[in-house]
């Protein structure tokens, strides 16, 4: 399975802080926002990842992330000229996807929770599509999934005026290769965008859509507003300081998933200088060496 991170858009709801910088490059506590969705794909075992950005932001992403070799991955880049909808990611990325299955994660979505890694790894060999549902207070902002009494999905609507449930669809999706052809058939909605909910409706109609409700132990943040960005930052700060472990540390994920050797992990530390992030990586190496000697 390959992965796509959609990091386009103008971030107008965050103006003025996103006038000069991509929303997905803003800090969420101690690291760039893009590290969090990237770490999710890496947790799933995905090494080939396409970043879709705006034309004027791409150089900044390349400067931050490079070709991915430092974390044992292959990073590629593509441009979304205008924010014409999430479904467009699969037509933009058609050549990159090839004949493979693909996971899409939104660049401003943050996920955390016990069992997250094993949950998403179970979707790698999906036959059809797999999405999630998460209870929210303001479902009108999202794609909304409706369930029957047996918790089977019966409908999906994009930003409905009268939501049929409280369950929003987070920005993490797993598809088989049919998604490319489905995406080509999507027509712009009344908002002028090619909605990912339309693709999910196609899979639902074909009887090939799997919807899992995220448990209470899972946390999801859509950092598209100032309030939600602040909430995510505070969540990461509190959790990291209490547990002394980092969320979204891509080098740590790469090492734990066997993408890189201990030597390559140690070499990656130097790029972070005297930062808190760099100090955390040093602690991991020192603890490993102490354990090996013991």
Automatic annotation (TrEMBL):
<feature type="domain" description="Nucleotidyl transferase">
    <location>
        <begin position="2"/>
        <end position="236"/>
    </location>
</feature>
<keyword id="KW-0460">Magnesium</keyword>
<comment type="function">
    <text>Catalyzes the formation of dTDP-glucose, from dTTP and glucose 1-phosphate, as well as its pyrophosphorolysis.</text>
</comment>
<dbReference type="GO" id="GO:0046872">
    <property type="term" value="F:metal ion binding"/>
</dbReference>
<dbReference type="Pfam" id="PF00483">
    <property type="entry name" value="NTP_transferase"/>
</dbReference>
<dbReference type="InterPro" id="IPR029044">
    <property type="entry name" value="Nucleotide-diphossugar_trans"/>
</dbReference>
<keyword id="KW-0808">Transferase</keyword>
<keyword id="KW-0479">Metal-binding</keyword>
<comment type="similarity">
    <text>Belongs to the glucose-1-phosphate thymidylyltransferase family.</text>
</comment>
<dbReference type="GO" id="GO:0008879">
    <property type="term" value="F:glucose-1-phosphate thymidylyltransferase activity"/>
</dbReference>
<keyword id="KW-0548">Nucleotidyltransferase</keyword>
<dbReference type="InterPro" id="IPR005907">
    <property type="entry name" value="G1P_thy_trans_s"/>
</dbReference>
<protein>
    <recommendedName>
        <fullName>Glucose-1-phosphate thymidylyltransferase</fullName>
        <ecNumber>2.7.7.24</ecNumber>
    </recommendedName>
</protein>
<dbReference type="InterPro" id="IPR005835">
    <property type="entry name" value="NTP_transferase_dom"/>
</dbReference>
């Amino acid at each position: 399975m390959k992965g796509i991170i959609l990091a386009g858009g103008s971030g107008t709801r965050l103006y003025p802080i996103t006038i000069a910088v991509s929303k997905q490059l803003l800090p969420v506590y101690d690291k760039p926002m893009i590290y969090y969705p990237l770490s999710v794909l890496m947790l799933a075992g995905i090494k080939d990842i396409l970043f879709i950005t705006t034309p004027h932001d791409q150089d900044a992403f390349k400067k931050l992330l490079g070709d991915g070799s430092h974390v044992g991955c292959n990073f590629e880049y593509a441009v979304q000229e205008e924010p014409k909808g999430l479904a467009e990611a699969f037509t933009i990325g058609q050549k990159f996807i090839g004949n493979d299955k693909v996971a899409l994660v939104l660049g401003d979505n943050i996920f955390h929770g016990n069992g997250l890694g094993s949950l998403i790894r179970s979707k790698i060999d999906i036959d059809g599509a797999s999405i999630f549902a998460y209870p929210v207070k303001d479902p009108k902002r999202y794609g909304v999934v409706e369930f029957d009494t047996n918790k089977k999905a019966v409908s999906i609507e994009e930003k409905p005026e009268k939501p049929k449930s409280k369950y929003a669809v987070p920005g993490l999706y797993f598809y088989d290769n049919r998604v490319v052809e489905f995406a080509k058939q999507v027509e712009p909605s009344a908002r002028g965008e090619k909605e990912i909910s339309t693709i999910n409706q196609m899979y639902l109609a074909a009887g090939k859509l799997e919807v899992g409700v995220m448990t209470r132990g899972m946390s999801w943040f859509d950092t598209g507003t100032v309030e939600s960005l602040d909430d995510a930052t505070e969540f990461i700060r509190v959790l990291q300081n209490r547990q002394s472990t980092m969320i979204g540390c891509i080098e740590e994920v790469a090492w734990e998933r066997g993408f890189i050797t201990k030597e390559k992990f140690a070499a990656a530390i130097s790029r972070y200088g005297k930062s808190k992030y760099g100090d955390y990586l040093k602690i991991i190496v020192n603890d490993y060496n102490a354990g090996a000697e013991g």
